[in-house]
Design a protein that fits this description.
Oligomer: heterodimer
Number of strands of chain A: 0
Helix content of chain B: 55-70%
Shape of chain B: globular
Strand order of the largest sheet of chain B: 1-2-3
Strand content of chain A: under 5%
Largest interface: A-B, 39 and 46 residues
Number of strands of chain B: 3
CATH class of the domain at 4-88 and 123-281 and 372-433 in chain B: Mainly Alpha
Distance between the termini of chain A: 61 Å
Order of helices and strands of chain A: HH
Largest sheet of chain B: 3 strands, antiparallel
Strand content of chain B: under 5%
Helix content of chain A: 55-70%
Structural class of chain B: mainly alpha
Order of helices and strands of chain B: HHHHHHHHHEEEHHHHHHH
Chain lengths: 72, 468
């Protein structure tokens, strides 16, 4: 794949986009969307698992102790 | 850039908007400190991460669709003359103008024209970023009200909703020189009393209705308990940083330099304008920002009987109330309007809290939402009859136009979407932290692990001490 810019010694009024892989914007957009949505999916699973673990751990005397230790 | 003046105007505008970005970043730093200071020690890390992580999520979604919404939606859903979406080649996320660009001719197959490229190449990114920082602010306002019991997954979905969808729609409708609310209602909201603050307050309220109060907030008889601030100094510094960042917010709401002919005026002169392309000056907004801040601080101190938290919040409410018309008000008008907003925001916060058992941890619904609504309605009376635009065919500013605008901002685009999304999140069990974890503290696992690590370290040190 050839670079978008091959020389800076040109008439700058004729230079437009300067990022690499000009023409691949739609593909980049799809990759970006997938990255964003996969973060939410991963985060929901991660947070739910942690909360379930903490809920199980902090019950009874352990919860009482946590309140006494952590509350102002 | 075909003349020296044209070139200087573009370069100056590029630098001007770029400078607003780090200034507005301080608003976010302020909100983070403020929220951490207002939360209890057992919730510190959760509170901080909740607010910080909205930065990447709102940023990327504002790139993916928020920026396009602003330019595509000014006609509303076919409200203005039955017209639909507006072509916006600079803001479509796969446009060549959404990346580094020097303004030359479009590439083959590009959706942009040579004129688009020449105009947008150097300012698209900085203009995008200035708007993005408004998006962070809108989401961050909601963040404070829901601390200490919301799941991150729920808050981050709400943050994307307000930061990259709903506030951008309201901006396209009512904070755009060509928006249908400006044309048909004469809507005027120069420094975002409604388009940022009222919508954020409405969104916070919509979520809070489903979220419910923190455990222990209300006594058995329904009266509210005070949940002491973890660190009043952090809250103070946070609010002062928000004041500081507001300077960037205000100047980012302006167009710094434009010639009279481009805004429907006469005379060979350049001026700054607000977002509606009607003239104002940096001096005007400097007078009025400081006077409305002062009005809010003075009344905040009086009405709260010297409570530091509500005094500082009163200053913020003062600025927010006067913001709709701070491009035009006399400074003493700004002072009095700011004072009125701070007074009513304080009273309404306490009334809503006691009457409806709404636990708004930092008073965001009042300081941003109620103050924003009040500011819009007041500006309708004070600026009654002023033109909303320099162009032909726009409605003038009126009390009814501003009141309808306030309802659209707070209720239609703020409260309603948040109420629906909050209800869905609640239905799927995604909204609230389990009660035992809330009681133990949202950082309970971190604190537990820290205690174990400290004990292990202490034992290791004692063992070493015995040897030596």
């Amino acid at each position: 794949m050839s670079p978008t810019i091959s020389s800076w010694a040109v008439d700058l009024t004729q230079v437009g986009a300067i990022y690499p892989w000009l023409g691949s914007e739609c593909l980049l957009y799809i990759l970006g969307l997938a990255f964003w949505l996969s973060f939410h999916v991963w985060q929901i699973v991660f947070e739910n698992r942690n909360l379930a673990k903490e809920k199980k751990h902090f019950s009874g005397d352990k919860l009482k102790k946590a309140i006494e230790t952590n509350s102002p | 850039m075909d003349t020296d003046i044209g070139a200087l105007t573009i370069v100056f505008t590029e630098f001007y908007y770029w400078l607003t970005v780090p200034l507005m970043f301080l608003i976010h730093v302020g909100f983070c400190l403020y929220e951490v200071g207002a939360s209890r020690r057992k919730n510190t890390t959760h509170t901080l991460l909740k607010n910080v992580m909205l930065i990447p999520l709102v940023t990327i979604t504002f790139y993916f669709f928020g920026w396009w919404i602003y330019f595509a939606f000014p006609n509303g859903p076919f409200i203005f003359e039955g017209k639909g979406l507006v072509a916006s080649p600079n803001a479509v996320p796969w446009s060549e103008l959404m990346g580094p660009h020097l303004g030359g001719p479009p590439a083959s197959g590009s959706m942009t024209s040579a004129e688009d490229n020449a105009f947008w190449a150097r300012i698209n990114g900085v203009f995008w970023a200035a708007f993005l920082l408004f998006s962070w602010t809108a989401a961050s306002i909601v963040s404070g009200s829901v601390i200490e019991r919301i799941r991150n997954q729920a808050f981050w979905i709400v943050a994307v909703m307000i930061g990259s969808v709903t506030w951008v729609i309201d901006a396209s409708w009512g904070w755009h020189w060509d928006g249908w609310m400006v044309k048909l209602l004469g809507y005027h909201d120069a420094y975002a009393s409604g388009v940022i603050h009222a919508i954020a307050g409405g969104t916070a309220l919509g979520v809070l209705v489903h979220l419910g109060p923190r455990i222990g907030k209300f006594r058995a008889d329904g009266t509210p308990r005070n949940i002491p601030l973890q660190n009043p100094w952090l809250v103070s510094i946070g609010l002062f940083l928000i004041y500081t960042g507001f300077w960037g917010f205000y100047v980012a709401c302006n167009v710094p330099i434009i010639d009279a002919a481009s805004i429907g005026a006469q005379g060979e002169v350049f001026t700054a304008t607000n977002i509606y392309l009607t003239p104002t000056t940096l001096s005007a907004i400097t007078f009025n920002f400081l006077m409305s801040l002062s009005g809010g601080l003075l009344i905040g101190y009086m009405v709260s009987r010297g409570d530091a938290f509500w005094t500082f919040s009163g200053g913020l409410a003062g600025v927010i109330t006067a913001s709709a018309g701070n491009d035009l008000y006399h400074p003493i008008q700004a002072l009095l309007i700011g004072a009125l907003g701070a007074y009513l925001a304080y009273k309404l916060h306490n009334w809503v809290e006691r009457t409806f058992k709404i636990d708004d941890a930092v008073g965001a619904v009042a300081v941003h939402g109620y103050a924003g609504i009040i500011g819009l309605i007041v500006s309708g009376f004070v600026l009654w009859g002023y033109p909303s635009s320099g162009f032909e065919g726009y409605a003038p500013i009126t009390p009814w136009g501003q009141t309808i605008g306030a309802v659209i901002m707070f209720f239609v685009l703020g409260f309603l979407p948040a109420y629906v999304v909050g209800g869905i999140l609640k239905m799927f069990g995604m909204l609230r932290i389990p009660p035992s974890v809330e009681l133990a503290g949202l950082d309970c696992q971190i604190l537990d692990d820290d205690a174990k690590d400290s004990k292990e370290l202490q034992n290791a040190e004692l063992a070493q001490a015995k040897k030596s």
